[in-house]
Amino acid sequence: DSHSALDALKNKLEEYGFKFHLFEIGSYAYAKKIGLKADAPQVRQLMEKSQALRLMVKIMGNMPVVDVLPKLFEVADEGVAMLRNYLNGHSYELGRIESMDPEELSRYLPTLFARDMAKNLETTKQPLVVFLDTYECLVNELTGVGLSFGNDWWLRGDDGLIVQIPNTLWVIAG
């Protein structure tokens, strides 16, 4: 599924210093909305890997995601300042994360990933080249799940990753 592919790509790009705060918040919110508990492997893995998410959950607890920004402005810690500065320009996305049902949020995760990628690439002068192998595994086209012509919409559609991430060359083998 697209979430697994995005998670694998995120894990690889983090090795190069990329940060994915919005995607991690969206993934955490999605896990909570589908009823996963804090000790579920997917939630534990998210919390272990993301310092920003751990910090946010520690401060916020079970508070709605949309209430994060006002609360972060009350806290003066340097780690919180980093998170606050990053999320300050993303109140629209935070509000959408909170208001969406699980299915909508699942479809919105690629957009959050793309916003994080664009943020990571703001200061780069050279294009990022993403080489993915293979297309069929990436979009799960051969499994018979979903419509085969729509399984890759999160990647190539009007709101897909390829369109939304500037300064990136996508090479997808197949």
Walk me through what this model shows.
The protein contains eleven helices and two strands. The chain has helices at residues 2-14, 21-33, 41-49, 51-60, 68-74, 78-88, 91-99, 102-120, 135-139, 153-156, 161-164; strands at residues 128-132, 168-172. A two-stranded parallel ribbon has the order 1-2. The longest helix has 19 residues, at 102-120. The protein is globular. The chain starts with a helix and ends with a strand. The model has no long low-confidence stretch (mean pLDDT 78).
Sheet of most strands = 2 strands, parallel
- The amount of helix comes to 55-70%
Shape: globular
Radius of gyration: 16 Å
Distance between the termini: 17 Å
Protein structure class: mainly alpha
Strand order of the largest sheet: 1-2
Poorly predicted ranges: none
What string, H for helix and E for strand, traces the elements in order?
HHHHHHHHEHHHE
Strand content: 5-15%
Q: What is the number of helices?
A: 11
Quick one: how many beta strands? 2
Mean pLDDT: 78
Detail the topology: elements first, then pairings.
Blueprint: H1 2-14, H2 21-33, H3 41-49, H4 51-60, H5 68-74, H6 78-88, H7 91-99, H8 102-120, E1 128-132, H9 135-139, H10 153-156, H11 161-164, E2 168-172
Parallel strand pairs: 1-2
Keywords summarizing the entry:
single chain; 174 residues; two-stranded parallel sheet; 11 helices; 6% strand
Question: How would you summarize what this structure contains?
Answer:
The chain is mainly α.
